[in-house]
Amino acid sequence: MAKLDFVDELLQDLKEQNLYNTIRTIESPMDAWIVVDGKRVLNMCANNYLGFANHPRLKEAATRAIEQYGVGPGAVRSIAGTMSLHLELEEKLARFKNVEAAISFQSGFVANQAVIPTLTGAEDVIFSDELNHASIIDGCRLSKAKTVRYKHNDPADLDAKLREYNSARRKLIITDGVFSMDGDIAPVDEIIKVAARHEALTMTDDAHGEGVLGEGGRGVSNHFGVHDKIDIEVGTMSKAFGVVGGYVAGKAKIVEYLRQRARPFLFSSAVTPPDVAACIAAVDILLESDELVQKLWRNAELFRSKLTALGFDTGQTQTPITPVLIRDAAKAVAFSKALFENGIFAMAISFPTVPRGTERIRVMNSATHSEEDIRFAAEAFAKVGKELGII
């Protein structure tokens, strides 16, 4: 047996379980309609909530930044890679989130790997929602702290778990703001009350809340009116903001310590000037108007109402994320394939991203969609759903 034969076996096993992910190729700008594998299809798959990924103002800002700053920062930020653009983005993010300070990173995934291991260690306990994103899970593992999972969106279970570890040096509660597979919102206001009783730090990952929830898309803390009570807010610039990068926002002293000790800040080059400039433009647009946020919600509510009227199960979503539950891996793959044949790009989501038996098509609504697009999508879902016996 050759030394890499095991890889062939693992790949074949994925295919037999209908868990092999066929990654499609996009050949156009990210927009409402895109070209995927040579076919023009309606995009119901991307996290481009507000259409910023192909927004004229962001493209203009990126082009100007290349002319002024070049294409790369040239070093890690702590040595020679921090540019005035990075500082401008951080100042505007702090203003947007209504907090004392912010620090930017290379991605939202990296931001979690930066903040969690920097603030916690082997003597500490992290309390993590059982459905938290993989980047939170990996950040917890890197910290070497004991990680205690509490029941999803259950403040009472969190309270009980905290009582078990009262003697821990530090206690850190972490939750996604919006859960990316189901679209439900963490009860952050209740979690903060629990944290106060146990003198625990609080942290939210608002990757799917920023640009979506709260006033002008300011996120889950604004949605609940608790921006001054959450210690750490992690976010990404790759979803509603349409570009790339991540950030940590919150107390100034925490941000300053991350500048001194967060490993991704110290040992990995900064985000490129055109990307940072595009991010700044996205924040500027949201600081000016909530028009795109309002359109996103109108589109989401229209699409969800059409699907539920058809008889689809869209779970417990409270946001523009719309899970269409199929509950079978093979059928979910077949559903996605049939949608593509009917002009809709929406991928199947199966284990390990979601638990077995909850396989789905996860639909991502966008402000770029027109009402005609929504009707077209609903008609395609109805056709495929009836053909496959889902409705």
Q: Can you walk through the features of this model?
A:
- The protein is built from 15 helices and 13 strands.
- The strands form three sheets. It has a seven-stranded mixed beta sheet, with helices on both faces. It has a three-stranded mixed beta sheet with strand order 1-2-11. Strands 10-13-12 form a three-stranded antiparallel beta sheet.
- The model has no long low-confidence stretch (mean pLDDT 96).
Labels describing this entry:
Aspartate Aminotransferase, domain 1, 391 residues, 15 helices, alpha/beta, seven-stranded mixed β-sheet, globular, Aspartate Aminotransferase, domain 2
In summary, what is this structure?
By secondary structure, the protein is of the alpha/beta class.
Q: Given this structure, which CATH class of the largest domain is correct?
A: Alpha Beta
Net shape:
globular
The CATH topology of the largest domain comes to Aspartate Aminotransferase, domain 2
Mean pLDDT: 96
Tell me the structural class: alpha/beta
Total number of β-strand segments? 13
List the domain count as a whole number. Answer: 2
